[in-house]
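Reviewers of the previous submission asked for a worked example of the structure-prediction workflow described in the proposal, so we include one complete record here. The input consisted solely of the amino acid sequence. No template or homolog information was supplied to the procedure at any stage.
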Amino acid sequence: MTALISMRDNLRWSKLHLITDLGAGRGVAAHDLPRFIGDLYDAGVDVIELRDQALGEQRALVEQVHAVAFDRRRLLVLGRDLQAAAAQQADVLHLGASDGDLTAARRRLHEYALVGRSVHNPDQWDHAAREADYAYVGPVFAEQGQAPGLELVRYAAQQSGDDFVWVAVGGITASNLDQVLEAGARRVAVSAAIVGAKDPVAAAGALADTLRERLGPVGLTAHD
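From that input alone, the workflow returned the following C-alpha cells.
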C-alpha cells in the first residue's frame, strides 16, 4: 500500500490515464496482463483504471497488477466496483456520476484511499470538487448521442485552478488531443487510443511523449 502523499503526488503529477478491462481491450490472456500493464506504465502511462464486471472474481489477478503498479510507483484504480475495492483494499476507487454516495464509499475503504468521480455537467463538477479527490470530466467526444464536450473542459479549467485534480476523458485520441489541451486540460484519460491500437505500447509512448512536449515534464518519469 503506498503512502498518502505518494498517491496524491502521483495523481497530481499524472498526465496520461488509461481505462481498460482485465482483457486489456485486445484479448490479452490473464497470465499476460501484469506484464502488459507493466509495459504500458514503462511506456509512459501514469494511472491505469481497471473497469470490469469481473474485478471481484479476479482478486489474485488484480493483486498481481497492483504489485506491478506499486513497483513502478504508479497508481492502479479500480473502477465502479465498491465491493471489489473494499475487499481488495484498493488505493484508488473511481465512481461514475450515479454510483452512489462518495462519503459512504470512503467508509468502506482504507483510511488513505482516494476516490474519484465522473462528472458530465457543471453541477456535478461543483459537487465533485467539494467531495472527491479527483474528477473525470467528459465525455469530451462521443460517437453517438450528445457529449458535454470541450465546453465542460473549459469550465473545469476555469474553476479548478491548481487546487483540484481533474482529467478530461471520452473519445480522446492523438488526432484531437491538441483541442483538449487548448481547452485547458492538463491530464487526459484514454481507452481505445491505446488498447485499440495495433501496437498499444507504442501508442502509449507516443501519447505520453506528446503530453510531455505540450505540457512539460512531470514529477515522476517512467525511469524514476
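The two ends are 18 Å apart (CA to CA). We consider this example representative of the routine output the project will generate in years two and three.
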